[in-house]
Amino acid sequence: xxxxxxxxxxxxxxxxxxxxxxxxxxxxxxxxxxxxxxxxxxxxxxxxxxxxxxxxxxxxxxxxxxxxxxxxxxxxxxxxxxxxxxxxxxxxxxxxxxxxxxxxxxxxxxxxxxxxxxxxxxxxxxxxxxxxxxxxxxxxxxxxxxxxxxxxxxxxxxxxxxxxxxxxxxxxxxxxxxxxxxxxxxxxxxxxxxxxxxxxxxxxxxxxxxxxxxxxxxxxxxxxxxxxxxxxxxxxxxxxxxxxxxxxxxxxxxxxxxxxxxxxxxxxxxxxxxxxxxxxxxxxxxxxxxxxxxxxxxxxxxxxxxxxxxxxxxxxxxxxxxxxxxxxxxxxxxxxxxxxxxxxxxxxxxxxxxxxxxxxxxxxxxxxxxxx
Length: 372
Description:
CATH superfamily of the largest domain: Type I PLP-dependent aspartate aminotransferase-like (Major domain)
Largest sheet: 7 strands, mixed
Radius of gyration: 21 Å
CATH topology of the largest domain: Aspartate Aminotransferase, domain 2
Number of strands: 14
Order of helices and strands: HHEHEHEHEHEEEEEHEEHEEHHEH
């Protein structure tokens, strides 16, 4: 049903739920009747299905995407702490995981067209202390993994993919989550594949790494009351796994809706004002977790859209090095493209439950703003 005349939400999870409510209720009832709330068949089934979807040999469910990043860094067990390169444009979880794992954060700039790590800037940041690089597939566009692998492999650097916003994104037919030594996923409710609470996962092709990740996430446990080392409590619970299994069946259909919506925006907003629209590299598949435009009049445009009943977001209002959390970081005052990007970005309503009529309202209101 089109909602052309009503307010346009930024994301409509309620509408998505109504599409799958009977499946979700049945899946949750299955967990409740079996009473396997931690681990058990629901978690094992989701891990298998999501690993197959990504094309990864091993998938380990954890409590959230932030834990997945921290556990990946811990499981790689570097001989000594060093530097880990992260993009200057991301959510703080990416850099936070580096600090909490005992490493030093090194920020690298992002590409001005795709907003993902710029390999040329990464190259300048590599030192003898560099241990790993964490590319973020920001907004759903894959980072340039082939180029980053060319940088990393000769130097023995680990690539850990942050796939929190890119479930199902691809490079030349291969899904993100299969390029690095490990990849991490968030299933926060607003993600393309979202739970009804917190959840995350880690994928890898390395059996030994997968075993260590699973142990770290469960108190260093080998078997009941047998612990080889201290770990943490970061387990994907069965109810969330059951919900995710239901949603995974719909993910490709939902992704195509996002891509169709993105194309509608692109066609309707091309050449309007000073707008800079998202791009999609050849042979790359963008999954549009967010549809992010840029404008020198971002704040005024956002206010005008709000007045018209259209919700938008800013992802993110500050580049990571500019955050108060990094006021003592040596790169806090450094000039990045990511800094100016943060002043211009605006995320339009996006999701599998935003319909074409709502998208047309957004387009009309944006065009109206620039024509006035």
